[in-house]
Amino acid sequence: MYKISKNIFNWDNMSIIEKINIITSVNNKKCEIQNKVFKILKDVEKHGDVALKKYTLKFDKIKLNDFFVSRKRLKKSSLLVKNDFKKAILMSFNNIQKFHKLQKIKDIDVNISSGIRCQRITTPIDSIGLYIPGGITPLISTVLMLSIPAKIAGCSNIVLCSPPPIKNEMLYAAKICGIKKILQLGGAQAIAALAFGTNTIHKVNKIFGPGNAFVTEAKIQARELVSGLSIDMPAGPSEVLIIADEFSNPEFIAADLLAQAEHDYNSQVMLLTSHKNLAYDVLFYLNKQIKNLSRKEYIISSWKNSKIIVTSSLEESFNISNQYAPEHLILHLQNARKYLSQIKNAGSIFIGSWTPESAGDYITGTNHVLPTYGYAKTYSGLSVLDFQKLITVQEISKISLKDLANNISILSKAEGLDAHDYAVSVRMNSWKFK
Ligand SMILES: NC(=O)c1ccc[n+]([C@@H]2O[C@H](COP(=O)([O-])OP(=O)(O)OC[C@H]3O[C@@H](n4cnc5c(N)ncnc54)[C@H](O)[C@@H]3O)[C@@H](O)[C@H]2O)c1
Ligand SMILES: N[C@H](CO)Cc1c[nH]c[nH+]1
Ligand SMILES: [Zn+2]
């Protein structure tokens, strides 16, 4: 019997520590995960392909001969997936592409003053790794979320990886995105392979993609261990926070909470409402709906990290939400759009009762790779810009350097950097005597 326990709390009655634990996403298992991941990273750095095979056998129960999916298998995937799946993927592809193409930013080219030209040009990041989660279930849609912006940005050297066995549907999604290199690797060992490289796998410059607590920790540690390596963001176990009023539908709210709770043992779902009756109605529907769902263990485990919080006002709900900075924020509010300006921190916002979070996961066009663990305070969801670098350019004419020379000299002397001063004066002197 799977029962959703009564995790209903009154914000005013919670202790300061309880409040801090909520808004700072405290994770009690962090140290254990950190140590485990560090060992895996170091083992792959030292033993390369041998370690990758060992961990794949250990965690995915698969004895790998080749790390890469063959071209033949990738090509064949088109024949092995259903037509309705192809149609659904196509709609998702088109919507994501439409939204992401608009994210391309314009270069800048300006004459700051006569003879002084400044530019900002955009260049794709070369050599990237895309991680697609696949431990609990293969997240086929994540292939589109990562590959489409990468292609729009112009990245050329792309390797995608996911835990084996990789389903035909995932290969098909990769194929329609134009991805050719696919690695059958998952978990921290996959991140290690992308970060350090091995005899058969090239190291990359930036690693993208969501994953469970092990994958996310591996990305964070790899960034520290390998100089020049970047990651997109910490995008760990799924989260949702819902703010609801007395006009909202408790059945819809329960369904939205369960949709994120089913992702992982470590997912976290929260409901904030100033209406106590609504909290109990939602609890009723949670228990009703879980009976018909297949991933009950994940939901029950996630529910231990989750809460329904009764606040004293809508304003207080927004205040808590902004401090918590959820990956997904759903506003089950009447005239929900009018509250948009109150939101300071969230990965992605879902407005009104007819915008289920699952729609954003698959098909609205926005990206579902989003910061978790409170990182929505400083990180944005994935966009085309994450796959590019912005490089500035400047060019000064001979005559215009003269206009700048004196001020450069004053500023460099103020910093005690006479070589900087000389790099200008040497030019001025050569110019004077010609
Ligand atoms: N934040 C986001 O944008 C976002 C988007 C999509 C999915 N997600 C999250 O991605 C995650 C997917 O998780 P998943 O597990 O299905 O797939 P995953 O691919 O992230 O992880 C699976 C791998 O984890 C490793 N692993 C599992 N247990 C381990 C252990 N005890 N020790 C060491 N390694 C271990 C294994 O190597 C396994 O192959 C979920 O948490 C989901 O919520 C987040
Ligand atoms: N909700 C997930 C992000 O937290 C993304 C996803 C993919 N498939 C289903 N859902
Ligand atoms: Zn989801």
UniProtKB/TrEMBL annotation:
Reactions catalysed: L-histidinol + 2 NAD(+) + H2O = L-histidine + 2 NADH + 3 H(+)
Residue positions of the active site: E327, H328
GO CC terms, sorted: cytosol
Pathway the protein takes part in: Amino-acid biosynthesis; L-histidine biosynthesis; L-histidine from 5-phospho-alpha-D-ribose 1-diphosphate: step 9/9
Cofactors (names): Zn(2+)
GO molecular function: histidinol dehydrogenase activity; NAD binding; zinc ion binding
Enzyme Commission numbers on file: 1.1.1.23
One protein family per Pfam: Histidinol_dh
Cofactor remark: Binds 1 zinc ion per subunit.
Binding site for substrate: S238, Q260, H263, H328, D361, E415, H420
Residues noted as binding Zn(2+) in the record, renumbered to the chain: Q260, H263, D361, H420
Biological process per Gene Ontology, one example term: L-histidine biosynthetic process
Binding residues for NAD(+): Y131, Q189, N212
InterPro entries assigned to the protein according to its UniProt record, in alphabetical order: Ald_DH/histidinol_DH, Histidinol_DH_CS, Histidinol_DH_monofunct, Hstdl_DH
Keyword entries, A-Z: Amino-acid biosynthesis, Histidine biosynthesis, Metal-binding, NAD, Oxidoreductase, Zinc
NCBIfam families: hisD
HAMAP family registered for this protein in UniProt: HisD
Assembly notes: Homodimer.
PANTHER family: HISTIDINE BIOSYNTHESIS TRIFUNCTIONAL PROTEIN, HISTIDINOL DEHYDROGENASE HDH
Family affiliation: Belongs to the histidinol dehydrogenase family.
Protein role: Catalyzes the sequential NAD-dependent oxidations of L-histidinol to L-histidinaldehyde and then to L-histidine.
Name of the protein in question: Histidinol dehydrogenase
Annotated organism of origin: Buchnera aphidicola
Record lineage: Bacteria, Pseudomonadati, Pseudomonadota, Gammaproteobacteria, Enterobacterales
Gene that produces this protein: hisD
